Amino acid sequence: MPGLMTMMALAPSPPMSVRPCFCNKMRGTTMLLVKNRSSSQAHLLGRRSWRAPAATTVATAAATAFHVDEQEREEMMMRRLAEDGWVDEHMLPLLTPVEEAWQPADLLPSFVVSADEQRSQVAELQARAAGVPDDLLVCLVGSMVTEEGLPGYMSMANRVAGGGDATGCDDHGWARWLRGWTAEENRHGDLLNRYLYLCGRVDMRRVETTVHHLLGRGMRAMLRPSSAYHSLIYGSFQERATFVSHARTARQAGLHGDACLAKLCGVIAADERRHEAAYTRAAARAFEDDQDGMVRALAAVMRAKITMPGELMDDGRDERLFDHFSAVAQRSGVYTAADYADMVEHFVRRWKVAELGAGLSGEGRRAQDYVCGLPRKIRRMEELAQDRAAQMGAQSVCFSWVFDRPVRIH
């Protein structure tokens, strides 16, 4: 999760004429043509250029009808997958039954034992945590803060047309998935928060202030928050990015001698892997139903430079806190541009994007070409970014999370 926004920023942006997301593509393109034609008519016909607004109105009406048709198709797909039992068969089994699931109390010092044993367990945890470097602690805090923003993420997911939980206890498959996913995710922030509190290495008040700010600020909307296609694609990428970052943190914690932290991040990574599998399956199913709509949605999501869940984090001091956190994650290897390029390649292969054929529209074929060529562009841009960084001197930023100690960002 950390750093993905920065990695997405490496993806080349489309020209302004094609900047709108795919649901507005027809409107954006048509209006551009009308604008160009109107300009020519104004030059050639003088007073008759007043006809352009009428043409624009027609184009806008057509685009609105197109948008409604796409949204209805996506909503129908979501309802069908719930009604025919697909969600129950292919997604819900990826949630762990509550009785079998780990809980934070299973993995941290126990307060069931005697006071002396409690002190011994906490002392051991702190001794192991003493070897964790500040850059890894910054990555860990940023991940924990992001995990704690869960109420906003559930609210966002509940906006998806055909996939929401209207009453809070709906019985259809998507509603049960959303609540089950939320219940599993809720443990992640709890687990990391308690570890950080016990380890004594971070300023918990500044960390808690950051969580408070993030919950109050919320999350910027995706391209089209109600879009099932955008949501499934976003969820697939987000869960895989989170899996990668937690798995890398686990590996590095182990190398620095903190077996407890390695285990905590490992169990979280395993959860994220199952969640990724669920969203990836659902997106693959949507590709089977509407390959043209899905490949256009995928290209739109890639072009938009995904807004990350924790982007609005704020500790009350550093106005660029998320950017600096992302830079530390990149430099420390917890999440890098190369990981993002690998992810794009993974999903292109998983969803067989390069193999899509006869059912694609002209716009769909252009979207296919763009997505399939994106990993190469990202890697090239990463090389250029590394070359620029190599020419710059070392730069550090003081993070309030680690008592204002300086941490290198490049």
TrEMBL record:
Pathway: Lipid metabolism; fatty acid metabolism. GO terms for molecular function: metal ion binding; stearoyl-[ACP] desaturase activity. Fe cation 1 binds at residues 147, 185, 188, 272. The keyword Lipid biosynthesis applies. It is found in: Plastid, Chloroplast. The keyword Repressor does not apply. GO terms for cellular component: chloroplast. Fe cation 2 binds at residues 185, 239, 272, 275. Keywords: Chloroplast, Fatty acid biosynthesis, Fatty acid metabolism, Iron, Lipid biosynthesis, Lipid metabolism, Metal-binding, Oxidoreductase, Plastid, Transit peptide. Binds 2 iron ions per subunit. Pfam families: FA_desaturase_2. Its cofactor is Fe cation; Fe(2+). One of its GO terms (biological process) is fatty acid biosynthetic process. Homodimer. PANTHER family: ACYL- ACYL-CARRIER-PROTEIN DESATURASE-RELATED, STEAROYL-ACYL-CARRIER-PROTEIN DESATURASE7. Belongs to the fatty acid desaturase type 2 family. This is Acyl-[acyl-carrier-protein] desaturase. It comes from Sorghum bicolor (Sorghum).
